Amino acid sequence: MADGMAVSLGLAVLALYMLVGTLLAVAARRAGVRSSQDYYVAGYRLGTFLAAMTYAATTYSAFMIVGLVGFAYSTGTGALGFELVYFVGTMLLLSLFAPRVWALARERRWISPAEMLGDLYGSKKLAAAVAVVYLYALVPYMSAQVKGIAEAVAGLAGSDAAYLYGVALGAAVMIAWTLVAGVWSVAVTDALQGLWMIASASLLLAWLAGWVAGSIGFDGATRLLGEKGLLGLTEFWQPSVFLGFTLPWMFFAATNPQAVQRLFMPRSPKALRGMVVWFAVFGLAYTVAVTLTGLLARSLSEAGLLAPIERRDAVTPTLLAHAPPLLSAIVFTSIVAAAVSTADSIALSVASSVVRDLYAPRARRPSERAEILLGAAVVAVLIAAASALALARIGFIVALSVLSSAILLSTAPATILAWAKPELARGRWQAALASMASGAALATAAAIAYGVKALAKPLLLGLPAPFWTLAVSTAVLLALLPLRKETQH
């Protein structure tokens, strides 16, 4: 898609999408943004459709249409297993805990996920510590979104030099849509983004399936993939690798603040149930579509009809260079949409924790306006940091995304205990703090020492860092729970 007409068409479709999205974001201001509750959790007023679409669009990002396509292309059906672990883990956590978390959020008026943990354990110190972990752990995940947009822009232009412009474009749209009306902007644009994402993924798969059917046939594609061992667990998927990649993903719904915060937002139990059901439909369909896209692309490479693609994150941009211009423009725009949605949701969630759990308890005269303005500043700083990391190109999109969740895995034991047994958690904030701090320190040290390779690198007993993060956090929590309760701190 590198000729001038195709590039112009891609930019035109993107411009149209951004215009519609901006109008929706501006219209969202009519919902009213008078308080931090309005700005960060939509005043607890999202209906079924908006709640489902914002959960889906927030969760499924550039990680999928760029990252997972490339992952499936290079590592085979093991990538599907990896992503289905996330899906099953998320559905299990939502089924078990979403109604309770929603009810407690309504009762106690939580705004940030860090505030939730601090309240459940009875400690503002714990809430502040969780906010700090969010603040640095989620920059790689946001960076993966900026990188997804930049890779798509480079593919659209047919020039790696355009990567820089892609980073700038992504940062600008992310900041603009977030600042208009906070999470109301994100929620209403997520509705557009979610529909665009699933439609474009389906169209791309249909086009690619037509290419395969008209050339090597599906039997031929299956045979070629089977000969390369791509229909089973390839050499890449060693036990330590599979464990390192899947463990952080299994607990995503309980550890990633942008996902947890969305449990606060539905306006009724009925809207919450609808959110879970429609997210399940969306998630399964989208996962299958993008995984099949990667596998079919690999079959064409094995047949010599598509040049081999060395960089995983270049698979989708390469397909766009071969697709009809209008389809390429639609998919390109969906990449921008998916990435913007997730990055904005992360930025707002982290900002809410900074404002509610670091600023407000220490401010002499905290005001709603000050909290909103500070939150906007935090959003801008986070997006700038993520853009700088994207420019460094230190890792693949999938690895960057999972790396964030690997650090956040340190919060899983304390969160699940508090959700399951709030009465047991109350007052035991020191155990929760020690649990999270020990796990986060281990995960952060591994990330500093090995970078994104920390996800799969066997450490003690041949097991990867995410396993030890979860094991240490759990062991510390269980060891310290019998200690006497402490009052609010």
TrEMBL record:
Superkingdom: Archaea
Keywords (A to Z) from UniProt: Cell membrane, Ion transport, Membrane, Sodium, Sodium transport, Symport, Transmembrane, Transmembrane helix, Transport
Pfam families: SSF (PF00474)
Membrane topology per record: Multi-pass membrane protein
Signal peptide: none
Entry's localization field: Cell membrane
Transmembrane stretches, start-end: 6-28, 49-72, 84-105, 126-143, 163-187, 194-216, 236-254, 275-297, 326-351, 372-391, 397-419, 431-453, 465-483
PANTHER family: SODIUM/PROLINE SYMPORTER-RELATED, SODIUM_PROLINE SYMPORTER
Family: Belongs to the sodium:solute symporter (SSF) (TC 2.A.21) family.
UniProt-recorded name of the protein: Sodium:solute symporter family protein
Biological source species: Pyrodictium abyssi
Taxonomic lineage of the native organism: Archaea, Thermoproteota, Thermoprotei, Desulfurococcales, Pyrodictiaceae
